[in-house]
Amino acid sequence: MKKLIGFIAFWIAVGMLLMLFLARHYLIGLIIIALLLLIGYNFYYCD
After folding, report:
1. Rounded to two decimals, what is the model's pTM?
2. Residues 2, 43 contacting (CB under 8 angstroms)
3. Whole-number Å distance between alpha carbons of 4 and 40
4. 33 near 16, Cβ under 8 Å?
5. What percent of the chain has pLDDT over 70?
6. Whole-number Å distance between alpha carbons of 36 and 46
7. Number of structural domains found in the chain
8. DSSP state letter for 22
């Protein structure tokens, strides 16, 4: 289950990276992307 959550969090972060090109709130977007990438990495690669 943790691998699935990590995989989903990673791809949400990738999608939000695309959102950065369309949105005005860059700081909030970057913080959310960083958190999702960190969660995705920890859940997918760390046991």
Report:
1. 0.68
2. yes
3. 9
4. yes
5. 98
6. 15
7. 1
8. T
